[in-house]
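Quick review question:
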């Protein structure tokens, strides 16, 4: 499982180049894995998580505990794209539509869709011929397994309100962990670049 720590590193490396990306231009107000996603997920809460303590589960989001090695740009873009796409797919289902406030769910899906569209250009440009091979490598594959585990959990719990609450909190943690790690790495990079 040595590839798992590189998942978050890939997400961070992608976001840390000049202008916040790896050579792909984005409008300044568009931040992948943004606070907007976390805020929308926070607002989607319908029941108290304390009512769902028996349903809690550790989905084992691949977390980086140390910096790890360099990740190629194309692989980082692939990982970022996969995270956004899997999150979109998770919440773009009939079961999800029945579980959440439709206005907030639509806002989340629109935010994820905007981020995916902005990243699609980068994905095509950076991945070129390597595309499908990179999509099946280490960190991207670990992320696919992570979301598969979430989908299986929801199915086992019959898409109950508590199961969706647990998943909502898990996805919030995944976005928050990525953002926090990004902020730490950016601070570290500033320290290195300072005279």
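Suggested answer, residue by residue:
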């Amino acid at each position: 499982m040595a590839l798992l720590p590189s998942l978050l590193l890939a997400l961070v490396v992608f976001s840390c180049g000049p202008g916040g990306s790896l050579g792909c231009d984005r409008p300044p107000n568009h931040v992948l894995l943004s606070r907007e996603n976390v805020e929308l997920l926070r607002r989607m809460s319908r029941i108290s998580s304390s009512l769902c303590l028996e349903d809690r589960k550790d989905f084992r989001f691949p977390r980086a505990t140390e910096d790890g090695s360099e990740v190629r740009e194309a692989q980082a873009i692939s990982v970022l794209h996969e995270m956004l796409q899997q999150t979109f797919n998770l919440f773009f289902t009939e079961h999800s539509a029945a579980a959440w406030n439709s206005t907030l769910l639509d806002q989340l899906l629109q935010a994820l869709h905007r981020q995916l569209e902005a990243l699609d250009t980068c994905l095509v440009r950076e991945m070129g011929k390597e595309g499908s091979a990179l999509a099946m490598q280490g960190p991207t594959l670990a992320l696919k397994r992570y979301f598969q585990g979430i989908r299986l959990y929801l199915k086992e719990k019959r898409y109950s309100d508590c199961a969706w609450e647990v998943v909502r909190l898990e996805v919030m943690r995944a976005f928050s962990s990525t953002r926090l790690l990004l902020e730490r790495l950016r601070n570290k990079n500033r320290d290195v670049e300072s005279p």
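Why it works: Confidence is low (pLDDT under 50) at residues 1-23, 25-32, 64-71. Residues 74 and 94 are 33 Å apart (CA to CA).
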